[in-house]
Specification:
By secondary structure, the protein is an alpha+beta fold. The protein has one domain: Nucleoside Triphosphate Pyrophosphohydrolase (Alpha-Beta Complex). The chain is 29% helix and 28% strand. The protein has four helices and eight strands; from the N terminus they run H-H-E-E-E-E-H-E-E-E-E-H. The strands form two sheets. Strands 1, 4, 5, 6 and 7 form a five-stranded mixed beta sheet that branches. Helix 1 packs antiparallel against helix 2. The chain is globular, with a radius of gyration of 16 Å. It starts with 6 loop residues before the first helix and ends with a helix.
Length: 183
């Protein structure tokens, strides 16, 4: 019996839709994209591709680790390309460690914490495309991090001061979700 590598992400996306009914339009768009493109986990899919990201909370759960992204020049969550790996949670965890140097991050839920579709502008070797981003909630027991080549900087940012760093709605939405999660 052939197992489609997209089944796992479709299951996660549909579960996310059940617990986040107000985001059903985004859920449907991502599910339709995954179903329409067998190579949805590959950068070779030029319309867009699945990415895995993380929302890392510190041990007090009052701060999140953001990257000042080099290519986009904005403060956002850590994450990156699946590069063919259909296990998007594994992708997110790998990207988190590579971009922060923090090992032993704890995943607070096996479910997707947030989803987002965002446009990536055209660059020298890449056409404009979309990232279909699945984000997971993690916690770090350590405050130290290492800034990778992909970032101008990293910083633990107080959730209450996030608007001082970014106006990105998807980041601010994760702050609101964190406040609900912690209740």
């Amino acid at each position: 019996m052939h197992v489609d590598p997209r089944d796992q992400i479709l299951s996660l996306i549909h579960q996310y839709g059940k617990t986040n009914p107000s985001e059903q339009d985004v859920v449907e768009r991502i599910a339709e994209f995954v179903q329409a493109h067998e190579n949805c986990f590959s950068r070779e899919q030029l319309l867009g591709h699945i990415t895995g990201s993380v929302w890392i909370l510190d041990k007090s759960m009052t701060k999140s680790l953001l990257t000042h992204h080099k290519k986009l020049n904005i403060w956002v969550q850590l994450g990156g390309h699946a590069d063919g790996d259909s296990d998007v949670q594994r992708v997110a965890m790998k990207e988190a460690e590579e971009e922060s140097g923090i090992a032993n991050l704890v995943c607070l839920s096996p479910d997707i914490f947030d989803i987002d579709i965002h446009r990536i502008p055209e660059r020298k070797t890449e056409p404009e495309h979309y990232h279909y981003d699945c984000r997971f909630l993690l916690q770090s027991q350590y405050d130290e991090y290492v800034v990778s080549e992909e970032s101008h900087d990293l910083s633990w940012i107080e959730l209450t001061k996030m608007k001082d760093y970014t106006t990105e709605e998807s980041v601010l939405r994760m702050v609101r979700k964190t406040q609900t999660f912690l209740k």
